[in-house]
Design brief:
Elements (H helix, E strand, L loop, with lengths): L2 H23 L7 H6 L6 H12 L2 H14 L5 H30 L4 H9 L2 H33 L5 H47 L6 H15 L1 H6 L13 H13 L5 H9 L3 H27 L1 H4 L12 H10 L3 H41 L6 H25 L2 H27 L5 H25 L2 H6 L1 H21 L6 H8 L6
Helix pairs in contact: 1-8, 1-16, 3-8, 3-12, 3-13, 3-16, 4-7, 4-13, 5-11, 5-12, 5-13, 6-7, 7-8, 7-15, 7-16, 7-17, 7-18, 8-13, 8-16, 8-17, 11-21, 12-16, 15-16, 16-17, 18-19, 18-21, 19-21
Length: 516
């Protein structure tokens, strides 16, 4: 066993013990359904802020997006990190956190489907939302497993990828099933601290690499590389030193919009606002979460933009997804200090992925246990039964995600490409307009969900018939952005031509903003 492997295993063991302990300690606070799903609505600013940020950024951001966009766009890719922090985090907290907390508390809603049911008085909408979450978020979690498994395989080339995915699945299941949201929130705080330390260390390491030349030499070396390979890069439309991405500007804008505005409608992100305890915590959480996202988001894409210099312009054998793992081994593979840093970075990426996985799994399990099953059963489901079922389904969804990731099932792999944009596109209109306007009707909300679904589905069908499915998957960012825009427009327009039959009930709901 090599030194990097030994140090990484030691760090993994310490990390696993810590996460398991947090899960066991949190068990006492998760014996009720409210406690298990939203921490009894009593989670503080720091914990909520870190939970939001760590759910936002998984290993897919580092291994997939940062590696790919840093390689193909260059320094301009950092705008994605800035957009995520300002639009996806700061604006989301400012606009929605307090209203979401107050309205979901008034409605006694613990999940996004339950919010739809009680805001619009529609059990059918609850069922539809639960199905969408189940179908598209479980495959998304499978993508996270796969990305992280590939990364660990780069450090441990003799170990199969599925072994790492199994270890990650088991560790996630232990503390999630034991402690529910409280456990995930407090582990997110620990994971967030690890992520910040890891990203700062990695930035220092990559900027200190001889091919990068530090902060002062980075841009000049990147410009020299661009000039030396001008013919090859120009043919591909790559302008590494253009701060706005050059010919990739349009692509950059769509990715910023998808990954930033997409958080406004994702149930695993919005759910953090259900649990925060008060307005004062929201004010502090807004600042903390934004700073966290700036460090992690901009740091990840900065690291990605140095990849061509560090790797000498040679794309690794494993392709785009191998860029960041190869950079890690190049920068941190030698010397005791570098090996220790490598172990920290591996825990960073593990933390980033596990925080996303736990949020997605908890959202998916509650969608079935709390929303779908009680809605289709004739008998009322007791809270104790829902609790037990939610814990069991957490295990089931962890297992399903692991199986999907290992089997490379074609339809599951395809669903991964569309999940983020489609889920947000379906929910963003009904969710946001439902917080701000009394005039939004049940039919308008239904129209928003269905229009988001049909926008992605229709565009996929047209592109597949005229070209091929791979081309459709390549345009999934544009489809996701279009779905979100359509949903936001359709909901109020349809509501203008329909009426609410229960004005008194809606007036009573909106009284929540005058309380406290």
């Amino acid at each position: 066993m090599s030194q990097p492997q030994l140090y990484t295993i030691i760090a993994l063991c310490i990390y696993a013990i810590a996460m398991a302990l947090i899960g066991c300690i949190s068990y006492g606070k998760s014996k009720t359904l409210d406690g298990f799903l939203i921490g009894g609505r009593n989670i503080g600013a720091w914990v909520t802020a870190f939970a939001y940020g760590t759910t936002y950024f998984s290993a897919v951001v580092f291994v997939g997006y940062a590696g790919q966009h840093g390689w193909n766009i260059g320094i301009g890719a950092i705008w994605i990190g800035i957009g995520n922090a300002v639009l996806g985090c700061l604006l989301s907290w400012l606009l929605f956190a307090n209203r979401t907390r107050k309205m979901t508390k008034k409605l006694h809603a613990k999940t996004m489907p339950e919010y739809f049911e009680k805001r619009y008085a529609s059990k059918g909408m609850k069922i539809l939302a639960a199905v969408i979450i189940f179908v598209f978020l479980v495959p998304y979690s499978a993508a996270v497993y796969k990305g992280l498994g590939s990364l660990f395989s780069a450090v441990f080339p003799g170990v199969e990828t599925w072994v790492w995915m199994l270890i990650i699945a088991c560790l996630t299941a232990v503390y999630l099933v034991a402690g529910g949201y409280v456990a995930t929130a407090y582990t997110d705080l620990v994971q967030g601290i690890i992520m910040i330390v890891g990203v700062v260390c990695l930035i220092v390491a990559v900027l200190g690499h001889e091919n990068v030349g530090g902060i002062t030499g980075f841009m000049s070396n990147l410009a020299d590389y661009q000039a030396a390979n001008s013919a090859e890069l120009a043919e591909k439309g790559i302008e590494l030193t253009d701060i706005f991405g050059g010919s990739s500007f349009k692509f950059l804008c769509f990715n910023i919009m998808l990954t930033s505005f997409g958080t406004w409608g994702l149930p695993q992100m919005i759910g953090k606002f259900y649990a925060i305890k008060d307005t004062a915590a929201i004010k502090r959480g807004t600042i903390i979460s934004t700073i966290f996202c700036l460090i992690i988001g901009c740091g990840a894409y900065l690291i990605g933009s140095t990849s061509r210099l560090i790797l000498g312009g040679q794309l690794p054998e494993g392709g785009i997804d191998s860029i960041i793992p190869t950079v890690l081994m190049e920068v941190l593979g030698g010397g005791t200090f570098g090996i220790i840093l490598l172990a920290i970075i591996m825990i960073l990426l593990l933390s980033a992925s596990m925080s996303t996985l736990e949020a997605v799994v908890l959202t998916s399990a509650s969608a079935v246990a709390v929303d779908l099953i009680p809605a289709v059963r004739k008998k009322e489901t007791k809270p104790e039964t829902q609790m037990l079922l939610t814990r069991i389904l957490c295990l089931v969804f962890v297992a399903c995600s692991f199986i999907f990731a290992t089997q490379n099932i074609p339809i599951i792999v395809s669903l991964m490409s569309f999940s983020w944009g489609l889920v947000s596109g379906c929910f963003i209109g009904p969710y946001i307009w439902g917080l701000f306007s009394k005039k939004i009707t049940k039919i308008g909300a239904y129209a928003g969900i269905l229009s988001g679904l049909l926008t992605v589905g229709g565009a996929t069908l047209v592109i597949t018939l005229t070209s091929n499915f791979s081309n459709a998957a390549a345009h999934s960012p544009e489809m996701g952005v279009a779905a979100m825009a359509v949903s936001m427009i359709v909901v109020p327009v349809v509501s203008l031509f329909t009426k609410n039959k229960d004005k008194e009930r809606i007036d009573e709901i909106f009284e929540c903003y005058n309380e406290e």
